[in-house]
Amino acid sequence: MRTLVLNAGYEPLSVVTSRRAAVLVMRGKASMLAEDGQPILSPSTLMPRPAVILLHQYVRVARRRPSAPSRRGILRRDGRQCAYCGKAAATVDHVIPKSRGGDSGWENLVACCGPCNVRKGDKTLEQLGWRLNITPQAPPHHMWLPQELDAPHEAWMPFLDHATA
Q: SS3 for 69?
């Protein structure tokens, strides 16, 4: 089981194991806001398993865009869908091929399925008569929240409603 960690300002900070969350609660560094139905058993203690905890001290997080995109970041930004045909994507493609002067920035990389990647090769979209289904750009701020928040646990939902707005 994973536990949502909220910063002192109630914004999502990370997702940790329930064991790590229990240690933070027992040491007085966090408070439990929601619990899972299954308790944590130890030889001397029976403790509810935390689903959401709130840190007592505010943790300052540097919120800046990453300098270089990654394969994982591109696939996540594009929802793992091919920018050309819309099917499931597993690779990344340069819209303007590197051989034609294209760079490896957020605005030139898109998620792509294998067949489209092979067909495109080092050709431009104009040569193929293709168009992009998305406009590639640096991802918005909320994309840097923990990836587990893409499919959140049901107990986390009341704490995430205002965070993603």
A: coil
- 150 is a domain residue: no
For residue 128, count other CB atoms closer than 10 A to its CB. Answer: 13
In a domain, 40, yes or no: yes
Of 31-35, 40-44, 54-58, 145-149, the range with the lowest mean pLDDT is: 145-149
**pTM metric for this prediction:** 0.57
Alpha carbon 13 to its chain centroid, in Å, reads 12
Last residue of a domain, one of 35, 62, 89: 62
- Shared domain for 114 and 91, answered yes or no, is yes
Distance CA(121)–CA(117), nearest Å, equals 6
**pLDDT band at residue 57 using 50, 70 and 90 as cut-offs:** very high
**Structural domain tally of the chain?**
2
Please choose, from the candidates 119, 120, 96, the residue with its C-alpha nearest in 3D space to the C-alpha of residue 108. 96
